[in-house]
Structure formats: C-alpha cells, structure tokens
Amino acid sequence: MLNWITDTISSLGYVGIGLLMFLENLFPPIPSELIMPLAGFTVARGQMQFIPAIAAGVLGTVIGALPWYYAGKILGTERLQQLADKYGKWISISSKDITKADRWFERHGGKAVFVCRLVPGVRTLISLPAGISGMHLVPFLLYSTLGTLLWVGLLTYLGYVLGDNYELVDEYLAPVSKIVVVTLLIAFILWVIRKNMRRYS
Fold it and tell me: One Pfam match, by short name (predicted)?
C-alpha cells in the first residue's frame, strides 16, 4: 500500500494526491493518515508546495464524498423507512427510528458533517446520512470542505514536521480509527439489546 501511494504521488504530483484522497473516500481502507503526511514530507523535501498539496487533498476528498452523498439521496428517507419496516425487525429498527434520526440530522446535520470529517473511521461514512436526510448540497459541501481542510491541513503539517518519520502519523492514528469503529459498533449493539429488552419487558 505504502509503495503504491508513494509511486502515485511521485509520478502524478498534486493530481496523485487528489486521486488518492478521492479513492480514500470511496474505499476507506486507503488511509488519508498516510497519504497527506507523505505529501507533507514531499513538501519538506522541496518537491511540492504546501498550499497546493493541501488544496489537492481537500478537492479530492470533497469530490470523493459526493458518490456516498448521492447514494444516500437515491436511497432516501422513504425508501429506508420501507426497508426498515420490512427487514428492520432483525435489528430492532423501525420507520419511526428512521424518522427520528432524520429529524436529528435536520437539526445537527451541518455540525455533524463538520465534526465527523475530523474523526478517523467515520469521516467517509457521514456523507451517506447527509444524503439520506436530504441535506442540501451547498451546506454539505461547505461543512465537508471546512472539516476536510482542518483534517488535511493537520496531516500535511505533521508529515512536514516529522520528515522521514511521516509514517508515525498513520501508526498512531490507525488504532484510533479502529477504536472509533469498534465503539460505534458496540454502541449500536447495546442500543439494539436495550430496545429488545424494552419490547419484551
């Protein structure tokens, strides 16, 4: 993975950064925690400029968020409610739960998109509920861009500062991503258990 990322950035430059960050949003196992620090290291070596590198990463990320956003748009709340009523009983999700989640996202959607863009493990996934809830494209792009700018800027700066040791960024942040995903999974399982206990009590 590292060799492929390195070769892509070396051969394609800023376009390579944008392409990798685009793919990272479609296929989360490709880590931004490795792409942008490598870009920062390349900047430190004088082979790239700092601002264009960040701009390429932000652009690739925001464009990469759109397929998930439009997938959510196509699925939509009504379709999701139908699926929940039909199959949701297996995981204790009903159309009412979908409606509650949709209302919550209407109130906090912008903040949710912004904050989740800074959280490893969920930064890609937030585009899906944004689309499902019908969040307008302009605010979605605005909050996505702001959150992504902070995230990409931080990773690039860390790579610039760490130099040859830029891989340490991924080494320390990769476990964080796993912890976040596992925590969310456990929280969901506990929520399902509690709903089932209330139903049969």
Answer: VTT_dom
Residues 25 and 86: their CA atoms lie apart, in Å, by: 30
Using left for φ > 0, alpha for ψ between -120 and 50, and beta otherwise, residue 27 falls in beta
Residue closest to 50 by CA, chosen among 155, 133, 175, 196: 155
The H-or-E segment that residue 138 falls in is helix 137-162
The conformational region for residue 191 under phi > 0 = left, psi -120 to 50 = alpha, else beta, is alpha
Q: What angle do CA 171, 117, 48 make, to 5 degrees?
A: 65
Torsion (CA) 75, 81, 87, 89 in degrees, nearest 10: 140
pLDDT for the residue 109 = 79
Longest Cα–Cα distance of the chain, Å, equals 66
What is d(CA 132, CA 70) in angstroms, rounded to the nearest whole number?
8
Cβ–Cβ < 8 Å for 154, 32: no
Extract the tokens encoding 174.
Answer: 């990769």
**How do the domains of the chain map onto residue ranges?**
2-200
Q: What is the pLDDT of residues 116-145, one digit of tens each?
A: 888 877 787 788 888 888 889 999 999 999
